[in-house]
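User: Please predict the structure of the protein below. I'd like the answer in structure-token form so I can feed it into my own downstream comparison script.

Assistant: Understood. Taking the following sequence of 213 residues as input:
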Amino acid sequence: MKILRYRGPASRDRRLAEAWEALLEGAADALHFHPEPAGGEPEILFPGAFNPLHEGHLRMAALARRRRGAEPHFELSVANVDKATIGREEAFARLAQFAATHSVVVTRAPTFLEKSRLFPGATFVVGIDTVVRIGETRYYPSEAACREALAAITDAGNRFLVFGRRAGADRFLTLGDVALPPVLARLCEEVPEAEFRMDVSSTALREAHRQIE
């Protein structure tokens, strides 16, 4: 595993262009950008598209920091199971949102099994909809592949810090509302609604922006 590490925010210079090519060609598994001073291995990883980054994401990261006593590292995967691959210019734009204040990792790891291999032992910050997908067999070649992936994540020592979210007009989904495979449920810790609820989403923000335009 090879992780290229940089101090300071990502910028559109030659250094980042070369690192980007290394990531796409498989010569690097991840690019890790730290604010000053440079940080260490991620104990908390917050994967997402961050399109755009919003206050809900920042509050989730702050709560994760308070619960775990470690600095969260945001993770942007250029490959995604449900979405199109992110190109270099779009990735640069999303990275710019983090400025010099947050640590961010860029990977080619669309699944949590792949993220687990890159960052064993890390706690993943996820929404309830994401953790449900992790346990759904339709995202795997077979039921056996799903079981094997969950077993591998368990063996790697990863866990999930799960945040609820609004579903429809008047419902807020929590772990108690969904059925997860027992092996996955045992890896999950819930942040209760009383501690965190923000009914904002990147999708809604993008739609509002398009309407303004």
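That's the full token string. The radius of gyration is 17 Å.
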